[in-house]
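Before the break, one more example. Copy the sequence into your notebook; we will annotate it together after we see the structure.
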Amino acid sequence: MGDNQQAITEDQWHRAALIWEYHQMHHALRPVDVAIGLGSHDLGVATRSAELYRAGLFPALVFTGGNSPTTAKVFPRGEAVHFREHAIGLGVPSEAILLEPSAGNTGQNITLSREVLAAAGIAPATVLLVSKPYMERRSYATARKLWPDVEILCASEPLELDDYVKSIGDEKLVLDMLVGDLQRVIEYPKRGFAIEQEVPADVRGAYESLIRDGFTSRLIAS
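Here is what the structure looks like once it is written out:
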């Protein structure tokens, strides 16, 4: 476990599970024109993208992402570059992958991927966003704001919260990230970054209580 580790109570786990479930869009997957794998610390995005490519869901795939303070050591040549290499190792042909190596946030992931696709002569009507499990809703809301004329579907690795925590190795950090992404779902529409998403009362209550309990390292100034 990481240095950030602390004991998580059963009630805190229950509240975190509510938020985890809310973050996922539960879209029924079907063939689309193109997929975009959103860069992050989580190589599972590239793994899931490769699985869905091999399943025949899309003919072309963009990996997008440069570096951030949390990924520079893990992916020193940039998130998209490492994701691309991982997907090729899992059987995705290199010619099916487009690279966007500069984006530093989700808005740039969408905007710069659109530019890369346009430069390749691809004008999709349907787009599948592949992200971390707890980032589906925020990426959906961002894409709907910035790319309103396409249909957006979302996917991620089909993991339960417990399994995801084991893959990351730090319970406190994962709960911090769940809380931080939900804050962005709530706040970003006010800043013009995303469309509004309804937050059920039980999910909002879980979010507010976890903030009171100190799961705050991924919060932004609101």
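The two ends are 30 Å apart (CA to CA). Helices lie at 10-23, 44-54, 79-89, 106-119, 136-146, 161-168, 171-187, 201-212. Try to locate both features in your own notes.
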